[in-house]
Here is the input.
Amino acid sequence: MAVVVPLKGKQGSAKKPDLDGINALVDQDLKRVNDVIVRRMDSRIALIPQLAGHIVAAGGKRLRPILTLASASLCGYSGDRHISLAACVEFIHTATLLHDDVVDESSLRRGLATANAVWGNKASVLVGDFLFSRAFQLMVEDGSLPVLGILSHASATIAEGEVHQLATANDTDTSETAYLEVIRAKTATLFAAACRIGAVVAEKPEAIEEALEAYGMNLGIAFQLIDDVLDYSAVQATLGKAIGDDFRDGKITLPVILAYRRGTDEERVFWRRTLEDQEQSDGDLDRAIDLLGRHKALEDTIDRARHYGAIARDSLGLFPEGVAKQAMLDVVDFAIERVY
Here is the structure.
C-alpha cells in the first residue's frame, strides 16, 4: 500500500458535508426514476438487462438524475416530465461508464467487477449503445425540442471529450488548459445538462436555465478535480477503489500536470517513464505520491476545485432561500470536502 500524503482541510469541522438534504428532497421522485430505469432497461435479449442491471446495481449516488430532480424542485415544477428525463440522464451516464471501462481496460468499479470483466468488451460496448438508444427514446417521448437539443448536445460533447482524452492519453506535455477542456466535456457537461432541463420543464426564463447550467458545469468540474485527488488519497479505499488506479493507467490528471511542471528534469524523466512509457516498478507509486506532496499538487488541485465550487454556489444567487437551494449548495460542499 502506498504511503499517502495527508491533506489539510476541514477535517475538524463538527459535521462533514453530505447528501442527506438533497436525498430527502428528492426521495419519492428518485424512487419513481429508479422504477423507470428498471422498466426501460428491460429487453427480450436477456444479456441486456443482466449487464445493464449489473452496473446500475453497483451503486453510486445517482447524483446526475438527483440534480435534475432537485433543479426542477428549485424551479417549483409540479409535473411528471422530470422523472423520465432524470432516468434519461442516468442512462447516458451509465452508457458512458460502460464505454469508459472498456477503453480504460478497468476490472473494478466501486469495488465490484466491471461489466466488461464479467461479460467482455463487446457486450459492454453494445449494451452501452442500447442504453444511449433508450435515453434518446425517452427524450423523443418527452416531446420537447429544447430538451432534445440540450441532452443530444451533451451526449455529443461527452463523446468528443472521450476522444480528446484518448488523444492526450499518457502525454505528460498535456497542459492544464487542455485537461480542463477534457473534464469539462467528459464530466461537467452532463452535470450542466442535468440541471438545465430542470428549468426547461418548469418553463423558466433563459436566465434561470443558464444559472442552473452554470451551477452544474462548475460543480462537475469541481467534482472531477476532487476525483483526481482521491486517486492518491487514503480516502479512496473507503470508496471501493484502489489508490493509484490513474497512475497505473498512465492517466494525466491535474495533480500530475502540476507536479510535472514544477519538478526537476530528473523528476520529469520519472513521470515520462511511468506514465508515457508505462514502465512501472515497485515503489513508483510511493514516489509519485511523494512528488505530488512535495510540489503541493494535491493541495492546489483542491484549491482549484474550491474555486469552481464557489462559482457554482454563486450561480444559485438568483434563487430564493429555501430547502431546495440549501440542498444544492450542500452538494457543492460534499463534492469538495469528500476528499477529507
User: Anything to note?
Assistant: Strands lie at 108-109, 112-113. The first strand starts at residue 108 and ends at 109.
